Amino acid sequence: xxxxxxxxxxxxxxxxxxxxxxxxxxxxxxxxxxxxxxxxxxxxxxxxxxxxxxxxxxxxxxxxxxxxxxxxxxxxxxxxxxxxxxxxxxxxxxxxxxxxxxxxxxxxxxxxxxxxxxxxxxxxxxxxxxxxxxxxxxxxxxxxxxxxxxxxxxxxxxxxxxxxxxxxxxxxxxxxxxxxxxxxxxxxxxxxxxxxxxxxxxxxxxxxxxxxxxxxxxxxxxxxxxxxxxxxxxxxxxxxxxxxxxxxxxxxxxxx
Length: 256
Ligand SMILES: Nc1ncnc2c1ncn2[C@@H]1O[C@H](COP(=O)(O)OP(=O)(O)OP(=O)(O)O)[C@@H](O)[C@H]1O
Ligand SMILES: [Mg+2]
Description:
The chain is of the alpha/beta class. It has a domain at 1-77 and 164-170 and 198-256: P-loop containing nucleotide triphosphate hydrolases (Rossmann fold), CATH 3.40.50.300. It has nine helices and ten strands. It has helices at 49-56, 79-84, 102-112, 117-130, 146-159, 176-193, 204-210, 228-232, 235-251; strands at 10-20, 23-34, 38-42, 63-69, 72-73, 87-89, 164-168, 196-200, 213-218, 221-226. The strands form two sheets. The chain has a six-stranded mixed sheet, sandwiched between helices. The longest helix is centred in the last third of the chain and has 18 residues, at 176-193. It starts with 9 loop residues before the first strand and ends in a 5-residue tail after the last helix. The protein binds adenosine-5'-triphosphate (ATP) and magnesium ion. Adenosine-5'-triphosphate (ATP) is lined by residues 20, 23, 25, 43, 45-51.
């Protein structure tokens, strides 16, 4: 079913609520994510970021609200049906298949999008090249440093051909160089694949480097949404999450 007459190329979540026994983990969060845009989703530990992502990609029951993908109400679809329509997510610990090579890992994602073997191989090569992973293609992913393995996991998700890619803390546990390289990879995905990216991340250098818009949540509720400039200067956001030091870090990382 098509919804309304408004511009349809976006992922919209309306008034998402997820209540566990006694815990209002997500309590009325909206989202509007456009193609070719990176939206940061930030907030303190336990704010409800992962639960919100789970709700949008339908990995939790007890969710209320509405999800509209490119103008179509998909609220009632199962996760695999959402994936087939281009909503793809990674988990807090992006894992690869350690015994498979980098190429095979990415190829698996492409096969998962329904391409035949020949087309899947072609798509995997294209992605590996554009994400600067060619020199690693023949290595088993177990042989990779942490940062490269993370980028391979993301390349595999991108191979599924997402219109909207939801990334949960892709830089967790990476060192400084690896984190900045990952930020470049995410920006490249936006620029070359053109999908919308919802990025949950505690590393404010990455958030303020790559996001066009940022949404802040706290205790499951919306706190602020705006441009990086608006967010880094928002006194409620500084108080609830960034702190003075975080705001300074944010000021040093202007989006391109
Ligand atoms: N399955 C569950 N059952 C009960 N409570 C849960 C469940 N999953 C999450 N919660 C609670 O919901 C709240 C939000 O958790 P969530 O993991 O979404 O936060 P988060 O913002 O992703 O935190 P972090 O930054 O630490 O990853 C927390 O209070 C958490 O304890
Ligand atoms: Mg989380």
